[in-house]
Amino acid sequence: MIRSPKYISSIVPQSIRLLTARNLSSSVTRMSYPSKEEISNAVQESHSSTKQFVLTETAIRISKPLETIKFYTGVLGMTLLLTRDDEKTRSSYYVFTFVNKNLIPQNDEKAFHKWRLGRSGNLEMAYSWDSIEHPTKYQCGKLNPDSFGHFGICVPDYEAAMKRFRELGCQVVENPADTSLSYILDPDGYKVEIFECHWS
Predict the structure, then answer these.
(1) Is 193 known to be catalytic?
(2) Could you tell me which residue ranges the VOC domain spans (predicted)?
(3) What is the rounded distance in angstroms from the CA atom of residue 197 to the CA atom of residue 20?
């Protein structure tokens, strides 16, 4: 005789049903995401050479530069710190951040870049000049998951940092357009740009 789930539920003591539900819930939870203990064990001690590393930017690709500038300045209230047109990469770059404009160094390019690279939380928008001729290759936003560019990490000694990353087994992606920077890939394949800058 085949019992219906409703019938089986009615004859199993409530204490057992609750215990089974708790065990199932606990099992699903452990399988779905790491426990606090696992997270604690995964956290590593930082290496002494990383003390001066700065997350200078997060870079994403855009298709509408003027609309982007209006949105991030007018809607979100960010400041457009820098614009740069690069012939090598055939791209234009726009760097935004939240900042009191009175704190931005004026009339001193060296002081400005030293100040900018020492900050965290900059947002870099990259616009490819070829996006109009090749719209399928340079799709942005939700149309293309590859529209995310990279995280930018500024280090005090580029060669030493790259040597250590290679020794750790990091996957390195060279930048043929600029030998002064490279990318390493995180476990999901996201690019982390590594380049050198000095604060003194």
Answers:
(1) yes
(2) 52-197
(3) 57
* Per-residue pLDDT, 104: 92
Residue 162: count of CB within 10 angstroms of its CB = 19
Cα atoms found within 13 Å of the Cα of residue 21, Cβ hemisphere only: 8
Superfamily of domain 138-199: 2,3-Dihydroxybiphenyl 1,2-Dioxygenase, domain 1 (3.10.180.10)
Task: Give the pLDDT confidence of 107-140 residue by residue, as tens digits.
Answer: 999 899 888 888 888 999 888 888 766 655 555 6
Amino acid (one-letter) located at 85: D
Closest CA to 193 of 62, 55, 95, 92: 55
**pLDDT recorded at residue 5:** 44
Residue range(s) in the chain whose domain bears CATH number 3.10.180.10: 54-136, 138-199
Query: Domain 54-136 has what CATH class?
Result: alpha beta
pTM exceeds 0.70 for this model: no
Instruction: Name 78's Cβ contacts closer than 8 Å, sequence gap at least 6.
Output: 72, 96, 97, 98, 123
Distance CA 72, CA 79 (A): 8
The span from the CA of 45 to the CA of 78, in Å, is 34
Burial, 149: exposed, middle or buried (Cβ in 10 Å; 0-12, 13-18, 19+)?
buried
Q: Write out residues in the chain with pLDDT < 70, as ranges.
A: 1-31, 132-147, 199-200
